[in-house]
């Protein structure tokens, strides 16, 4: 199986091609908080060219669906859906939280993993994974202190753009986390591997926001209807 993976959910613009027979054929990651829309398609073209592959020879397209940046998510998901439609291949949506946790679970599936994404305004998007990667706390948004309490239920490894915030709220005197790995975005190679392993979805990928947009229309600026 050949998978094109795309990630624009957080602080990177990334793509990779993974072949289940031979591994990662090509990948590229550019760190950025903005500008994903301008960078993504040229980046994908470079990755596909390096892999020596045409879109028609892909088996599926995998893309991170969030939580993450509202704009970034739309860029990646729109690209994945467009490529899938043009190539006549399925598109698979993957949680950004699961993508963060995947390499830690693969290295040691016997200890707890907390995937934490900075949701700003003193909140965290989190998911807690137990033994064998089983979900203990499903994806949700929580205040930093509540996220820290959820992380303390067992010795845990914390990873993600919100890892340092969760660790900073750790109570003094409590047993510290096993590890804290601050990362702005998940590893695109692991997103590609997850994309190959994931079951085919029932429909096109959709954003996993977990909260309402910060920007809302101003009622005072609306024109009255006639």
What is the molecular shape?
globular
Biggest sheet, spatial arrangement of strands: 3-2-1-4-5
Name the CATH architecture of the largest domain: 2-Layer Sandwich
Portion in beta strands? 25-35%
Rg calc:
18 Å
Name of the top-level CATH class of the largest domain: Alpha Beta
| End-to-end Cα distance | 56 Å
Overall average pLDDT:
93
What percentage of residues falls in helices of 4 or more residues? 25-40%
Annotation, overall tally of beta strands: 10
- Give the helix/strand class: alpha/beta
Counting DSSP H or I runs of 4 or more residues, the number of helices is 6
Low-confidence stretches: none
CATH topology of the largest domain: Nucleotidyltransferase, domain 5
CATH homologous superfamily assignment of the largest domain: ATPase, nucleotide binding domain
Whole-number tally of structural domains: 2
Q: Secondary-structure element order, as H and E?
A: EEEHEHEHEEEHEHEH
Please give a structural write-up.
With 226 residues, the protein is of the alpha/beta class. It folds into two domains: 107 residues, ATPase, nucleotide binding domain (Nucleotidyltransferase, domain 5); 86 residues, Nucleotidyltransferase, domain 5 (2-Layer Sandwich), CATH 3.30.420. The chain is 31% helix and 31% strand. The chain has six helices and ten strands, in the order βββαβαβαβββαβαβα. The strands form two sheets. The chain has a five-stranded mixed beta sheet, sandwiched between helices. The chain has a five-stranded mixed beta sheet with strand order 8-7-6-9-10. Helix 5 links the parallel strand 9 and strand 10. The longest helix is centred in the middle third of the chain and has 18 residues. The mean pLDDT is 93.
């Amino acid at each position: 199986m050949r998978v094109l993976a795309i990630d624009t959910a957080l602080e990177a613009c990334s793509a990779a091609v993974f072949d289940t027979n031979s591994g990662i054929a090509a990948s590229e990651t550019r760190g950025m908080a903005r500008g994903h829309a301008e960078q993504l398609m040229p980046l994908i073209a470079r990755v596909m060219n390096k892999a020596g592959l045409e879109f028609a020879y892909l088996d599926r397209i995998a893309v991170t669906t969030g939580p993450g940046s509202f704009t970034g998510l739309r860029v990646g998901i729109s690209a994945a859906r467009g490529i899938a439609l043009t190539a006549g291949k399925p598109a698979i949506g993957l949680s950004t939280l699961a993508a963060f946790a995947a390499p830690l679970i693969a290295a040691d599936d016997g200890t707890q993993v907390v995937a934490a994404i900075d949701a700003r305004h003193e909140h965290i998007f989190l998911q807690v994974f137990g033994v064998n990667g089983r979900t203990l706390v499903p994806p949700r948004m929580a205040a930093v202190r509540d996220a820290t309490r959820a992380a303390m239920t067992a010795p845990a490894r914390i990873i993600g753009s919100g890892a340092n915030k969760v660790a900073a709220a750790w109570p003094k005197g409590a047993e510290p986390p096993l590890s804290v790995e601050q990362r702005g975005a998940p590893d695109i190679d692991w997103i590609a591997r997850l994309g190959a392993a994931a079951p085919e979805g029932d429909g096109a990928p959709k954003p996993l926001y977990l909260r309402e947009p910060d920007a809302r229309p101003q009622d005072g600026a609306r024109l009255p209807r006639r």
